[in-house]
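Sample pair:
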Amino acid sequence: MKKFLLLLTFSFLITILHAQDKQPRPGSKIEAMKIAYITNKVNLTTEEAQKFWPIYNKYAAEIREVYIQNRGGDEVALEEKIVEVRKKYKSQFQTVLSDERVNQFFKADKEFNAMAQREIMERRQQKKQQQ
């Protein structure tokens, strides 16, 4: 069942990506990978995913806005604002998922972001070494 949901998610993502303009927006591949990663880690059902992802999109947009507003600012203030956003959305995520699975989501989100950052850093280093 888990493999079926993962396959369904990838099919859905591929359909969405093909339906968009010919020039993909920056980060669309990463977003697709993140969606698949979180869906797998939290083990979202189709019904849960339909309710979860709109909430997640609002959450992600608000987190991005916090980072944009705090560029070059106080690191502690940034972390406090991020925690505030997480607390705000935790109750919204709980309308779809259990407390345990909401925590799994927040963990998976952090894990994916850390993996993506490591990958970006490694690619930059490889690029520097090639030059």
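DSSP finds five helices and no strands in the chain.
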